[in-house]
Amino acid sequence: MGKKHMVNRIITYMALLILMLVVMLGVYAFSTYSILSDELRSEASSILAVYGGQLKGRVEQMDAMLQNLLLQNQTSLLLLKSTSEPKRLYASQSIHNNIRDALQSDQSVNVFVVADNDYDVCVDAANLSIGYWDREALRAYTRDCAAIDDFPKTWHVVTLNGQGYLCKLYAYRGRAAAAFTSTTNFLASVPKGDEHGQTLILTDGQGTVTGFSGTALTQENLGQQLADIKTNGLQAPAYTLAAGQVLLHLRIVSVIVWNQTRIIMAVVFAVIVVTLLFGALIVRYVSREMVQPMVRMTEDMRRINGENFTLRIQGDFGTQEFTQLKDTFNRLMDMIVHLRIQTYERRLALREMELKSIRLQLRPHFFLNAITTLASLSSQHKETEIKTYVEALSRNIRYMFKSGLHTVTVGEEMRHVENYIAMQECKYPGCVFHFIDLPQELAPWRIPQMLVQTFVENEYKYAVSPDDVLTLLIHVSKEEFGGEEMLLIRIEDDGKGYPMDVLQYMNGDAPRPADDGERTGLWGIKRMMALMYERDDLISLANIEPHGCVNLIRVPSKPLHEYREKPV
Hints:
Blueprint: H1 6-72, H2 74-79, H3 85-105, E1 111-116, E2 121-126, H4 132-146, E3 156-160, E4 163-172, E5 175-182, H5 183-187, E6 198-204, E7 209-213, E8 234-235, E9 239-242, E10 246-252, H6 255-305, H7 320-379, H8 383-400, E11 407-409, H9 410-425, E12 432-437, E13 446-448, H10 451-462, E14 470-481, E15 484-493, H11 500-506, H12 520-533, E16 539-543, E17 549-555
Helix pairs in contact: 1-6, 7-8, 7-12, 8-9, 9-10
């Protein structure tokens, strides 16, 4: 996976830093806005309580005026149902004078209306100019309510002829007395808050807008549900003016909060802009003074890493640190090249010594087995077998001490294996059935000498028994392995298989078992393959069911290191 460039990392970190700063400033601005909104909402509740208290006091005053009207005119109200027309006229005039005087002394109520349906009597008086159709609407409403004996005796809001009125009405046996105050006049009794973005809203018990004072609403909103009217601003909880039938609301536009926070937002924006500019300057400086010199040095190092050890870091740098780094690196390269030459020569000598040592280990291992076999045949007085064995042994010795390359053709190795098996037949007659499958076109492929024989020797030492017949199969083919065409030698038997520690070491899954003199040939072959081809995955061992083992040996087309024996 490619690594990121430093400039990309710096830009990423700067972006994260700026993002964190922006988030912090945003959170601060949002929290400030929320605090101011809460304070404004609390202030709105306080203002609404003050205004609501004033208006509720007026409602109580209007209620008292209506109660006094009923008490002072009890006799006249009774006379409205008199059969004598003069008495009704007298009573009407008396009621009119009383309500007119009451309106003049206290203007809390705008209109009083008294009606009796039996003789179609209706008396009214007002302390403000009311149009003819408005007056007729009030009179008609009062007559209609007079016919309802159980009409609620509570304040409520009614809209007549397009005008909202706060109304309270007493009705009994076709007679009614009502007090009306227009919602516009009612709300005008408290200070207007337009310059502060305040709007007072009057609704009935169902939330229908019946009047307002302020700019948040328009005339088109009258008669609509307040909850359905979308306006920008804060709304305080409703204040009850009359037993849940008349409610007062207050809305304050959010621009007030914005006006109080815009200075903070301007400062936040300025900090963000300054941070961006400062970040850009840092990135530009780092790119010029650090990244560009490092890119030049990295490019020179890449060329040096491409085995061109004559190159050195060139150029002048603007900082003392990079200049010192360049001079130090060049001096170190001179030293490394000198040491590399010496070390390389020593390693070659040591590698050849190790390869030679491994081959010398394999040869005594073979000779010890041969001597043991001769001793066994001699103790059994098998002179004919001894003669056959010695002839085969001589052929093997000539093969092993043959001068030339450390690798031989696989065809030559297989002929040597056949000779070795013939030699072992003297010791184990009829105990091994073997079959070698070597395609003719693969016979010239070169493999390390004694490679196959070492595995076959291991079979005879640990798998062959005089009591059983061991089947030994050797198959040679080609395959793609690790992106390279290799020779695959498969050696399979039906013996008892390998111990677990041998499998783990040969497959590279565990360290080498304790050096007790066992499996020396296998250990040497594994090390020899690693030295010659610089790979540890060329040998793979496994046990098979129900019994037996399979050895997979892969040989590349050419070794990387090869030891040549010098002719004696």
